[in-house]
Amino acid sequence: MHDGSGRIHVQGLNKRFGPVHAVQDLSFTVQPGAVTGFLGPNGAGKTTALRMILGLVTPTSGTATINGLPFSRLPKPGGVVGAVLDAHGFHPSRTARHHLLCYSAAMDVPDGQVDRALELVGLAAAADRKAGGFSLGMRQRLALATALLGDPQILILDEPANGLDPEGIAWLRGFLHAFAAGGRTVLMSSHFLREIEHTADRLVIISQGRCVYEGHVDELRAAQQSRALVQADSPEALVNKAQEAGYGVEYLPDGRLAVLGADSRTVADLALQAGVALYAMQDERIDLEQLFFQLTHGQFAGLAQHAPPTPETWARPGDGGGV
Ligand SMILES: Nc1ncnc2c1ncn2[C@@H]1O[C@H](COP(=O)(O)OP(=O)(O)OP(=O)(O)O)[C@@H](O)[C@H]1O
């Protein structure tokens, strides 16, 4: 039964495993009607946080609630949350349908939901094939079908795009968008911003167990100002015109101008108004991946000091280096 909220609320969550402080004072909210990407480098604490939300790991302190309740107190949790933490736990000799029937019986869900779930994830044609012969992409879909059995309000997916080919990623994106557009909630983890930036509407980025960003993907892009790089025959006249229009301008060492927050089309219009000829224009795109590295820098600090081996490391004695 859906109560119309579909909100996940994490407040001051901490988890220690002996000396490892896996999740540190983590707070964020996941809203319904959107896909929220839960992002962080390897070891950032994503899986631990998801497991705490799902009541599989006990927090050292803090709370995680779904629709205002801890997972363990949700009435009929299968109808509220469907989760995929691992797409590998299938009995290899069981068919996809048989696998789902085992779960539907355990969840007290009508058997009709099995065929619906297989249809929803595009596995209807493979329903009677053994899961042991499934590709990684098919296993991901079967895991998703399992999560959908209870017709949940919320999907929590740990690295659902892992191992998917581009077609599989595009399919997953369309699936999750439609699910969220119907007013439901998606929380999905990933360690690649690129993999998630066109799927997620909102982002929660963590590093070393702490939240370093929570907000819309577009806001993150906007935080990194774009700029147009131009070569002008009369830079001073263009600078004056751009400043009049409210744009900041920087002189680059190579003689070009960088007009901050503008695209090349806007700068071309300004140049036309100022009677300035332009010889070259380039839009500098916002590199979200770079921003992600900056935000999670602390996590990589130790690794960065350990430079990868050089080609000399692999040279065998007596190698002349020629081919
Ligand atoms: N059961 C456990 N016992 C001890 N340490 C653990 C346990 N589970 C996780 N950790 C540690 O907690 C930290 C966070 O791990 P976690 O798996 O939550 O990160 P993650 O962001 O999901 O990483 P990845 O993207 O590599 O899966 C890591 O240092 C990990 O080694």
From TrEMBL:
Is-annotated flag, keyword Nucleotide-binding? Answer: yes
Q: Which is one Pfam family of this protein?
A: ABC_tran
Q: What CDD domains would the database entry show?
A: ABC_BcrA_bacitracin_resist
* Gene Ontology molecular functions: ATP binding; ATP hydrolysis activity
Coiled-coil segments on the chain, per record: none
**Which UniProt keyword terms apply here?**
ATP-binding, Nucleotide-binding, Transport
In terms of superkingdom, the source organism counts as: Bacteria
**Sequence segments annotated as region (Disordered):** 304-323
- SUPFAM superfamilies assigned to the protein according to its UniProt record, in alphabetical order: P-loop containing nucleoside triphosphate hydrolases
Does the entry feature the keyword Transport, yes or no?
Answer: yes
- InterPro entries from the entry? AAA+_ATPase (IPR003593), ABC_transporter-like_ATP-bd (IPR003439), ABC_transporter-like_CS (IPR017871), P-loop_NTPase (IPR027417)
- Ranges of residues in domain ABC transporter: 8-233
**Similarity annotation:** Belongs to the ABC transporter superfamily.
Q: What is this protein called?
A: ABC-2 type transport system ATP-binding protein
